[in-house]
Each structure stands twice: as structure tokens, then as C-alpha cells.
Amino acid sequence: MTTVVNTVDTSHEDMIHDCQMDFYGTRLATCSSDMSVKVFDLRGGNQKLVADLRGHEGPVWQISWAHPMFGSLLASCSYDRRVILWRENAGQWTQWHEFKNHDSSVNAVQFAPYECGLMFAAASSDGSVSILTSGNNGATWDISKITGAHLMGVNSVSWAPYIAPHSLFDNGDHQVTETSGDPQNSGAPERPHMRLVTGGSDNLVKIWKC
After folding, report:
1. Where are the WD-type repeats located (predicted)?
2. Which residue in 88, 78, 116 sits closest to 210, CA to CA?
3. Cα(197)–Cα(168) distance, rounded to whole angstroms?
4. Which is deepest, 19, 28, 42, 173, by most CB within 10 Å?
């Protein structure tokens, strides 16, 4: 039987579009049409507001926590065509990076599995998906874009779980090991297999290899 444990009075002034717990389940982030992102500390059975993040100029549609190995890092996306990364340091949340890579509303954002490094994807009503990657802990970012991903706009994006190189899965969901035919390259590092799924206003879902 499912029961309500707690009810959080967020004090948002408009509709809440998304809510996400962090990796440890001790913090809750929410976002709203009131253009704000809020972070709550849930420890001890309480709901303490620790951050009221203002930076977007339109409704905030979705939020995503990064894996804690990258620190306390939260991404938000908005109707204002932007993605903002928020970072907590010594108890203070601040706007860390701002990305303006789309020509219309950014509807979805999600960090990739931590094994892939510091990476996230953002989906937009302009029909494209941007993939942003940092190899130096956020100092600089490489941006790639899937243009024309969905003709009528992209509404959702999700990463598949990490799959190590040389591993495959058969139809019975049993792991199968694939070995390289070139023993000289067997010790060379390989990029992990990454899969991304998107859903659009064209009634299609597409799976991408990144």
C-alpha cells in the first residue's frame, strides 16, 4: 500500500512542472512556471528551503541532478531558450554556467550516466537536441547538436544506463561479452557505448547512438 509520507509546501507561485530528488535522496529540487528553481533539505523528516534560484526569464520545465562525483550540480531548462547550471559551494547556491544553444523553448534536460563524464543533453521546440560535454570539470564545454531530431519539436530526452565497451545484451537480457579481433588493440581504451532516446511532437520516439 502506498501512503503519503510528507507533503512539501514549496511556496511556488505557479504550476510546478518537475521535482527531482538527488542521488542520496536527501535533497529535493523543484521548478515552476513562476520562473524559479528551489532546493529543499529533506533530512530529519523536515523540508527546509535552502535555495531559491532565480535566473530564468520564463517557465522552468525540467531539472536534473548531476552525479555527486561532480559536486552539487543541478541543471534547469526553460521556455526562455536557456539551460542554466547551478552549483552549490560551501552551502551557497549560485549560477555556474548559462547555455543559449537553441532558438526556441528548451523542454527537457538530463545529465548522462557519470561513467560518461560530465555531460548532459537538452531538447528543444526548435527540433534539435544539444549535447554538452566537459572534460575539465566544467571549465570549458564542447557542444554538439542533433539538428532536425524531430520536425515539430523535441519534448523529452533520456539517457540509457552506461554499458561498458565490449559488452552487449542479447534478446534475453543476458550480458554477452564481445572480444576484439585485434589483440594488439585489446588494451586500448574505448569510448563507452552511449544511447539517447528522444520523444517529439511528431508522435515519434527515436533512439540515438552518441
Report:
1. 53-86, 196-210
2. 116
3. 18
4. 28
Summarize pLDDT for 19-39 with one digit per residue, the tens.
Answer: 999 999 999 999 999 999 999
- CB 130: neighbour CB atoms within 10 A? 23
Confidence check: pLDDT of 183 > 70: no
* Candidates 2.60.40.420, 3.40.640.10, 3.30.930.10, 2.130.10.10; CATH matching 16-161+195-209: 2.130.10.10
Three-state SS string over the chain comes to: CCCCCCCCCCCCCCCEEEEEECCCCCEEEEEECCCEEEEEECHHHCCEEEEEEECCCCCEEEEEECCHHHCEEEEEEECCCCEEEEEEECCEEEEEEEECCCCCCEEEEEECCHHHCEEEEEEECCCCEEEEEECCCCCCCEEEEECCCCCCCEEEEEECCCECCCEEECCCCCEEECCCCCHHHCCCCCCCECEEEEEECCCCEEEEEC
Q: Are strands 142-146 and 83-89 parallel, antiparallel or unpaired?
A: unpaired
Distances (CA, A) of 8 to 2, 18, 45, 163: 17, 13, 11, 36
Residue-wise pLDDT tens digits, 138-181: 999 999 999 999 999 999 999 999 877 655 444 444 333 333 33
Q: Are 197 and 207 in contact (CB under 8 A)?
A: yes
pLDDT of residue 29: 99
